[in-house]
Amino acid sequence: MRKIKLGILISGRGSNMQALIEACQDHSFPAEAVCVITNNSEAAGLKVAEQAGISTFVVENKPLDANKIHEILIQYKVDLICLAGFMRILKVDFLSKWHNRVINIHPSLLPSFKGLDAQEQALKAGVKITGCTVHYVTPEIDAGAIIAQTAVPVLPNDDIQSLSERILAEEHKCYVEAVRLIAESNAK
Ligand code: GRF
Fold this sequence. Notes:
The protein is α/β, with parallel strands linked by helices. The chain has helices at 15-24, 45-51, 66-75, 92-97, 118-125, 160-187; strands at 4-10, 31-38, 55-58, 80-83, 102-106, 129-136, 146-153. Helix content is 37%, strand content 23%.
């Protein structure tokens, strides 16, 4: 089985990155994590990636050096870029070089609650079901084609933290399954 090569972009905690790295450690999983790139030298996820033996890179943040990110991804022969809590916007010139090869995870059932604070938006709207979405990244924020979604209930006493934690647990599984779907459909 040819494994697809993942480049993972993070800005912070990196729990989705960790879920992907752990999935990739299973020899039967059809992807391998080859590099982790961050715009934030303080990102907690960097240490996790280093401990897992993955090559890590910090790129210039202000302005974001997207050309440098592109060079690293090419150097590592990345097939699929996974944004995992990456808090910078990738512009059209970068995305056009990686057409249909950049995916993201968002903590709502898109197209509801795009943008920041999706869990808070769901609580304020009073919805009873929210969730997470893995989607292709396009220049329009949180608007690309949907790859996978998981529904998560909103419980009566939820606050932002409790709801976010319930969604996050599903994000980790949903992201892994979305990568599997893409890798397996590439292999056909
Ligand atoms: C997740 O909730 C993800 O959906 C959003 O940012 C958060 C990142 O968390 N895009 P982590 O860094 O993966 O732990």
